[in-house]
Specification:
Helices cover 27% and strands 24% of the residues. With 169 residues, the chain is of the alpha/beta class. It has a single domain, classed as Spore Coat Polysaccharide Biosynthesis Protein SpsA, Chain A, CATH 3.90.550. It has a seven-stranded mixed β-sheet, sandwiched between helices. The protein is globular, with a radius of gyration of 15 Å.
């Protein structure tokens, strides 16, 4: 089973008042690089979507991953479409979407989700918070890739998760 992880990193960080949250340091490492390292440690293939000519590219130097430049003005859907197309092209059975601005998500968290996903590989799976609320990351099986290809705007995968309710883990 080929596993793929998408780190959608094309957002504008508008709430950061001019600073780029993905370049902020956490324990001496840029948040985007930290997230990429954790994703790579799961032994999955990893892709990062970036805005065209982004300075974020520099913090990913030396990492064995795929960089996909997108038009960030299209919203989150552009990242999801690019990620699903990449996952399809590498023959992935599922795509984990892991938001790179969540420093508390560990390699162990991602690995536990992959293990749980193997129990019902054709159904979406979503991490749950400690109090049972839907959270992140989300794993989308290959069968929903065509629906991802039709997404538009900045609503992310909400419509897909409504049509294909995920299990929580």
């Amino acid at each position: 089973m080929t596993r793929a992880i998408l780190l959608p990193a094309a957002g504008a960080s508008r709430r950061m008042r001019g600073r780029d949250k993905l370049l902020e340091q956490v324990d001496g490492v840029a948040l985007l690089r930290r997230s990429a390292l954790r994703a790579k440690a799961t032994e999955a293939y990893v892709a990062v979507t970036l805005p065209i000519a982004s300075p974020r590219r520099a913090v990913l130097d030396g990492l064995d991953l795929t960089l996909v430049e997108i038009d960030a003005a299209e919203g989150m859907a552009a990242s999801l479409r690019a990620g699903a197309a990449w996952a399809r092209d590498i023959g992935a059975s599922a795509l984990m979407v892991a938001l790179p601005d969540m420093p508390d998500i560990t390699t162990g968290d991602m690995s536990a989700l992959w293990a749980a996903q193997a129990e019902q590989p054709d159904r979406p799976l979503r991490a749950a918070t400690e109090d049972g609320q839907p959270g992140h990351p989300v794993i989308l099986p290959q069968r929903v890739f065509p629906a991802i290809a039709r997404l538009m705007g900045d609503a992310g995968a909400r419509a897909i998760l409504k049509d294909h309710p995920p299990r929580l883990h």
